[in-house]
Structures are given as structure tokens and as C-alpha cells.
Design a protein that fits this description.
This protein has 1 helix and 6 strands, in the order E-E-E-E-H-E-E. With about 100 residues, it is mostly beta strands.
């Protein structure tokens, strides 16, 4: 099986209210803003990105208690936003609150 396992920490931004799919499944979306220093080709560089995150099911209900500016580490997988889109979304399968 091919690997698609991502762990990313950052600050929650643009947190949408919890909503439900037509099938009644809880759905939460937010943006995760990440900033860090990484080493590439023996050189240190600054990395900054914003990534949309989608959470479904019981985990969406649990994460609905987050607030903007919450520091979290999110684990999940990457997928296209939709069949016709090239935009990428991180589908969260686990998270952990982090201290700043």
C-alpha cells in the first residue's frame, strides 16, 4: 500500500462552525497555519504554509471545541478537495492540543 500519512502542527485559523453532511455525518473545516525551520540539502530554511483541514464523524464533534488561535498537531492524509479540483485538503484522523 502506498503511504499518505501526514502530521502537521500549527495554529487553527478560519474555523467554521460544525455542520452536517446530507447523510448526517458531522463535518468540521478549518485552516491550519504552520511556521517552522527545516533543513533541506544541508541548508536551514523557513517554511510557512496554510492548509485547509477537514474532519468527519465523532472527531469533528470533539474538535468543534477548538477556537481560533488553538495550537494543535493534526494527523491524517492528503486528498483532493473534490474530484474536479487540484486543491489539496488534509483529512484529520487524530489531533493533539499543544502548548505554545
Amino acid at each position: 500500500m502506498s503511504r499518505n500519512d501526514v502530521t502537521l502542527s500549527g495554529v487553527v485559523t478560519e474555523l467554521e462552525p460544525l455542520r452536517y453532511t446530507p447523510a448526517g455525518i458531522p463535518l468540521l473545516t478549518f485552516r491550519l497555519t504552520h511556521q517552522s525551520r527545516q533543513v533541506e540539502a544541508s541548508q536551514e530554511r523557513s517554511v510557512s504554509l496554510d492548509l485547509p483541514v477537514m474532519v468527519l464523524g465523532d472527531l469533528a464533534r470533539e474538535m468543534a471545541g477548538l477556537t481560533p488561535e488553538s495550537n494543535v498537531a493534526v494527523r491524517g492524509f492528503l486528498a483532493r478537495r473534490s474530484l474536479k479540483s487540484l486543491s489539496v485538503v488534509l483529512h484529520a484522523t487524530a489531533y493533539k492540543l499543544e502548548m505554545e
